[in-house]
Design goal:
six-stranded mixed beta sheet, alpha/beta, 3 domains, binds guanosine-5'-triphosphate, binds magnesium ion, Rossmann fold, Gyrase A, domain 2, Four Helix Bundle (Hemerythrin (Met), subunit A), 13 strands
Length: 459
Amino acid sequence: MIYQLEPIAALATAPGIGAIAVVRVSGEGAISITNQLFRGKDLTQQDSHTAHFGTLRNDDNSIIDEVLVTVFQTPKSFTKEDVVEISCHGSEFIIQQILRRLMQAGVRLARPGEFTQRAFLNGQFDLVQAEAVADLIASDSDASHRAALTQLRGGFSKQLKELRQQLIDFVALVELELDFGEEDVEFAHRDKLRQLMLDIRRVLHPLIDSFSTGNAIKNGVPTVIIGKPNAGKSTLLNALLNEEKAIVSDIPGTTRDIIEDELFIDGIRFRLIDTAGLRQATDQIEAIGIERTQQRMRDAALVVYLFDGKNIQPEELQTAVDEVRSSGKPYLLVGNKLDAIDDRKRQVLEQTVGEQVVWISAAKQTHLDELKLALSARVRTDSAVQTGSAVVTNARHHEHLIGTDSALARAIAGLDSGVTPDWLAMDLRVALQHLGELTGQITTDNLLASIFSKFCIGK
Ligand SMILES: Nc1nc2c(ncn2[C@@H]2O[C@H](COP(=O)(O)OP(=O)(O)OP(=O)(O)O)[C@@H](O)[C@H]2O)c(=O)[nH]1
Ligand SMILES: [Mg+2]
C-alpha cells in the first residue's frame, strides 16, 4: 500500500552556487503542479523516468529558467510517490523563484529528512537503511562510505527481520500456553526455541562487537602515541601531519597537554594523539599530563609505542613493551632515531622484543610511509571493513542490539531453570520490542521525528 501525501519540495543539492541545482518535488500532484509552471511538453502525459527540456514560467509568463525536468511516477521513485526533479541553473535567485512558484501552486517546503521519511513509511527501506542514507550523505572517508553503503543495501537488518519473525511465531505459541492457565500444555517446542535464541545471539554478537570499529570508521580511529620523554613523539606527530603542531625540544617533559589532529591514511581517518612522556612526574602539571596520557591510552583504539632507539636499554624496552602488551590494545612498536644508531644496536633491540618493530627517523622524516602502511594494516586486520560485512556505526542500533541480546540471555537462562511461560513470554517480548525498534517495524512518532530531523532539508 503506497501513500501519497501532500506535495513537498526542497532543494536536493547542496546550497550555494553551482553549475546546476536540483529541486525535488514529491507527493500527490507533484507532476501536474509542476506542469502548471512548465512550458515545453505536457508532463502529465510522459512516461516515468524520462527527462524533458523546457522553461519554468512566472505567473506573468516571464521565464524563470531553462530547466530539465525528470518525471518519476508512483511507485517507482525514491519516496514511492509521484516525484519531479527540476534541474535548473545553480543560482540562489533562480532556486528561490522556483520554490516560491511551487508554493503558490500549493506545494509546501519539506522538513529535514521528510523525503527519506516518506520513503521509509512507504516501505522503500527500513529504519537502519534510512539512517544509512544519512550516514552516506555525511560520509567523508572511504571506509565510512563503505560501511554506510553496506547498510543501505540491507546490511544486517534483513537477516534480523527474518529471525524476528520466527521469534514472533514462538511468542504466539508461548502466549497461547498462558491461555490454558493451570493445564500443563506446551505448544512452543522448548529445544527449538532455545536453538533459535542461540542463533539470534550468534548474529547479534559480531554486530555488537563491530560498533567500536564502526564508531572509529565514522569518527576516526583514536590512535595514541606514547613513550618516554624525548622519544620523539611530538616530532613524529608533526612529521605525519606535515605541520609544526606540537612543540619539540630536547628538554624531557616538553609536552604536557594532549595534542590531537586528524590524518587520512589509505581512506581511513585516524585521530592522532600526542601525549606527555611517561615517567615519574617532576611537578604537578606534568603529573596531570601523565594522568591524561593514561586516560587517552585507555580510550584509544590503537596504541603507537614510540621509543628512542639511541637512548633506550634493552631491559628498559622489554619492560615497556610488556606493559603495552598487557593493556590488551592493538599496538604498534615504533623505533625512532634510526639516523642516530647503527645496525647492531637495532638488531639487539629487535631481538629483545621479539616482534615486528617499524623503524623510522621522525626528525629526518624517513620510513614514514612504512609506518603509515603499518597503521592502516593494523586497523584493517581487526575490523570488518575489509570483508565488507555489516558494521554498526549508529549508537541507536548498538543500544537495541545489546537490549535484544540481554533479553535473550535472560530468556535462555529462564528456559534452563524452567520458568513459567509468563516469565518466558515477558523476556521474549522485550527482545522483540528491541528488534522491532531497531529495524523500524515498531516505531513511535518521537523516534521517527528524532531520526529524520537529523537529516538536512531536501534529503
Ligand atoms: N637524531 C634524532 N633526533 C630526534 C628524532 N626525532 C626526534 N628527535 C629529537 O628528540 C628530541 C625530543 O623530541 P620530541 O619530539 O620533543 O620528543 P617527545 O617524545 O615529544 O618528548 P616529550 O614531549 O618531552 O615527552 C628533540 O630534540 C628532537 O629533535 C630523530 O628521528 N632523530
Ligand atoms: Mg612531546
